[in-house]
Amino acid sequence: MNNNRPNTLYLVVPCYNEEEALPHSAQVMREKLNRLMQEGKASPESKILLVNDGSRDKTWQLIHGLCDTDPTFAGLSFSRNYGHQSAILAGMMAARQHADIAVTIDADLQQDIEALDQFLEKYQAGCEIVYGIRNDRNADGFFKKLTANGFYGLMHLLGCNVMSNHADYRLLSKKALDALSEYKEVNLFLRGLIPTMGFPSDVVYFDVKEREAGTSKYTLRKMMNLATDGITSMSTRPIQLISMLGFAVSVFSVIMIIYCIAEWAMGRNVPGYTTTLVVSLLMGGLTIFSLGIVGEYVGKIYLEAKARPRYIVESFIWKEGNCENFEREKQRK
Ligand code: UDP
Ligand code: MG
């Protein structure tokens, strides 16, 4: 933090098939950044970094157009869809080179952009990380509410240190971005990972709005993947629970064996077919379920061991400061 000049702020915006939302969102973000610059809260070198996460629509063309007409916009494009978490990580890592602060915000303007002032105030007060927490879930449908509440409940049950109702609207200082760059894990769950880094931090509460345009890009499959990534990257409690379950079943089976032998010794027949069927189905189910959970962890270890790149940047557009004619475009294979 430097008190003599305004800080360079980078807004990092992940975009996946956002052609409907982007034109308006980009304009609103630009106006907000302008105001922050005029008020001396953000330096003129501040930028809006739009990360194209392998969109199949015109998102990248739109980003290209914005960067061509206004050097305040920068663009980064992936070679394919790597997912929201990778998109914001790539944006933050690119911002780290130039920015004092990076704020990640969704492209659909559901997260109240006016809360940015409070984020910056907390940063000025000495926070290295500021978490945006949504006030309520009224803008969400019934299903989204149910799955989100279920997910946070499960995470807390499993002992994970995640903040309820914190999505990825978040400020990170240069120091925090540098620390984040040291984490090389492929199994990425930023909203669980970042709080483990420590640093002075605070929260900002904001209202969630309806999506301005387009539809949610988080399909059920993406949500399920994020949830399993979250659990497997933050906790090994499920494996401990399986051990405890195995122990409980073993104790129960010893009791049942003693009971059956006693019944047999007293000349009584233990009723057979139904009990056998129920027990074998139950045990089969529990075994496969437990194997599946262990398998999830093995799969994650496999991915971590291969350590493939978390994303591949195909194009990067970035114009120096406010200078009109300077353009740098990197092409990486
Ligand atoms: N997003 C992304 N890659 C994906 C899915 C989503 O970059 O694979 C972006 C999307 O463009 C948006 C943000 O992540 O900026 C949040 O997605 P969305 O608004 O669709 O999720 P929701 O608000 O419905 O949870
Ligand atoms: Mg959204």
UniProtKB/TrEMBL annotation:
Q: What does the record say about its membrane topology?
A: Multi-pass membrane protein
As one GO molecular function, the record gives: glycosyltransferase activity
Pfam families under this entry? Glycos_transf_2
Source domain of life is Bacteria
Please state every residue range assigned to the domain named Glycosyltransferase 2-like: 11-179
Q: Name one GO cellular component term.
A: plasma membrane
Cell compartment(s), UniProt = Membrane
Question: Which positions, given as ranges, span the membrane?
Answer: 241-265, 277-298
Residue ranges annotated as coiled coil are none
Its protein name is: Glycosyltransferase family 2 protein
State the taxonomy lineage.
Bacteria, Bacillati, Bacillota, Clostridia, Lachnospirales
